[in-house]
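User: Design a sequence. Structure:
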């Protein structure tokens, strides 16, 4: 379990406390079957104790010394899906472990499992399932927490496994939003769809489901991987489709112990493991806990209103205040100004969940804010003719000097700040806020050279149009 050793070494190194910091995690008895769990079950828990970090039973004898350079790198795989789709069942097969599964078992926060045997040097990240039930007065907190968990998982990973059962419209929407969000990230994510037909027993029924839900709905085609297992050549059947320009690999699982499972389950697990084992170009350092803290700190100001800083209108001041880090002597991630508190239940931080997080169309991710590390972007269209580029963007409600438009070599850049409408109101009650406010930046790359001397800017009732004539190609004949 080289991946586990490195992840735990990274945890022990957090805060510069080395072995002393590591001891505080081991002193807390736990029955969690995962290797590391970050209990991000509620973002509003940051008002008091924050998020506990718990080590599992398998970490008791783990070596926390820094591994060799070869072992420092591994693959991070996010396992996503709605509640009760069989994510834990799949992890048991991939990691060769025994995580409890079933309708009454709930994954908490960010649950990290290091692969064993064939999947060593791979870390799997499981998150709380989407659409679990919650008390009515906690719905906003739950929605924001689930969005944050999904974003953390996608930020950390290079490979995504989405687990579905019989395909539903909600699953299709979920997959589409993951694809859209993944394309906005710096590096492409490799995506595997596992069709976990946990109630299907016969090969005939599996075949019918594949024809409808895989081949027709995804327009997927049958493909084959040839593997060498125990010196024997074997073929693994799976399906490939293209969605939004991203290749999806589809694997089939059926009800354990029945004929369909005997045909599909082993070959599907072998095929997934092969894809992960051979993704050597996606491996990196495995300090997942530290990266989680860093990423969360880019998101908090877009989820919370820090009431303790209402005496200032400075966004930069607010960003410095709303940050999380490891507690100095407790196994918790807490707000920075609570890192030395002995009783974390006392003196709650005055932190209010924003009433207007900008989710995507399906409510799965933090939409505009998420895509751009906290900066929203105006909508735009870009058209190209034989002679020019026409760039049209929407920028209503701006005063002179609040936006800057530049056309540089190879790109159009628009940036500025929209004044918060509430600033001119006295103690407003917010019923709805959909219009993004604050800092924004939009940078659109241009695929052809343009003539900067003849660019024109037109404005019509909040719509701006930049007309960029193409640079004419000239040739000089040399005699």
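Assistant: Done.
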């Amino acid at each position: 379990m080289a991946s586990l050793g490195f992840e735990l070494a990274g945890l022990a190194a957090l805060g510069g406390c080395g072995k002393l910091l590591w001891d505080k995690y081991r002193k807390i008895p736990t029955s969690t079957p995962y290797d590391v769990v970050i209990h991000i079950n509620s973002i509003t828990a940051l008002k008091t104790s924050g998020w506990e970090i718990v080590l599992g039973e398998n970490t008791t004898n783990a070596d926390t010394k820094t591994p060799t350079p070869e072992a420092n790198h591994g693959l991070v795989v996010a396992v996503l899906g709605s509640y009760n789709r069989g994510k834990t069942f799949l992890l048991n097969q991939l990691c060769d472990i025994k995580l409890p599964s079933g309708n009454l078992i709930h994954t908490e926060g960010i649950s990290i499992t290091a692969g064993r045997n064939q999947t060593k040097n791979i870390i799997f990240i499981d998150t709380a399932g989407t659409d679990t039930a919650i008390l009515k007065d906690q719905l906003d907190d739950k929605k924001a927490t689930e969005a944050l968990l999904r974003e953390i998982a996608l930020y950390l990973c290079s490979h995504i496994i989405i687990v579905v059962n019989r395909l539903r419209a909600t699953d299709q929407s979920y997959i589409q939003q993951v694809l859209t969000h993944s394309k906005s990230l710096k590096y492409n994510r490799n995506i595997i769809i596992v069709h976990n037909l946990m109630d299907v027993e016969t090969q005939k029924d599996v075949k019918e489901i594949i024809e409808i839900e895989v081949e027709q709905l995804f327009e997927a085609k049958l493909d084959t991987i040839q593997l060498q297992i125990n010196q024997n050549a074997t073929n693994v059947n799976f399906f490939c489709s293209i969605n939004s320009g991203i290749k999806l690999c589809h694997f089939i699982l059926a009800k354990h112990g029945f004929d369909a499972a005997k045909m599909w389950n082993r070959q599907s697990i072998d095929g997934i493991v092969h894809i992960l084992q051979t993704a050597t170009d996606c491996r990196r350092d495995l300090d997942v806990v530290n990266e989680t803290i860093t990423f969360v700190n880019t998101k908090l100001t877009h989820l919370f209103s820090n009431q303790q800083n209402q005496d200032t209108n400075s966004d930069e001041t607010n960003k410095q205040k709303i940050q999380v880090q490891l507690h100095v002597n407790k196994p918790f991630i807490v707000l920075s100004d609570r890192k030395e508190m002995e009783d974390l239940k006392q003196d709650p931080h005055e932190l209010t969940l924003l009433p207007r997080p900008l989710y995507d169309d399906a409510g799965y991710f933090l939409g505009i804010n998420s895509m751009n590390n906290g900066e929203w972007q105006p909508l735009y269209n870009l058209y190209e003719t034989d002679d020019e580029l026409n760039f049209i963007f929407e920028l209503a409600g701006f005063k002179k000097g609040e936006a800057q438009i530049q056309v540089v070599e190879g790109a159009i850049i628009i940036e500025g700040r929209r004044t918060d409408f509430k600033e001119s109101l006295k103690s407003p009650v917010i019923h709805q806020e959909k219009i993004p406010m604050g800092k924004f930046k939009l940078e659109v790359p241009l695929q052809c050279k343009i003539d900067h001397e003849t660019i024109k800017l037109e404005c019509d009732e909040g719509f701006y149009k930049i007309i960029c004539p193409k640079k004419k190609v000239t040739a000089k004949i040399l005699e």
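Confidence is low (pLDDT under 50) at residues 10-22, 307-320, 368-374. The chain has two domains: 2-285, 380-469.
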